[in-house]
Specification:
Largest sheet: none
Strand content: under 5%
Radius of gyration: 26 Å
Helix content: over 70%
Structural class: mainly alpha
Shape: elongated
Length: 74
Amino acid sequence: MADRRMKFPYTFSAKIAQFPLKFYIQNQWVWRYYFIGLAVTFPIFWSISNLANSPANKAKWAEMKRKEALEHHH
């Protein structure tokens, strides 16, 4: 098959087709450390979410909001 790339890709689809994504993934640190950072922080955010959405915490929050509403009405 003949190479039919444009000398200058002026359409959006031609720019996407000729973008050297493989080069950027192999040579930039951001790609590597993004997934490492995601794996490291996921358990931390998971535990924070579980603590914030626990039934005891929801009851405590509702009680605080109830008291706050009573203060504003009196």
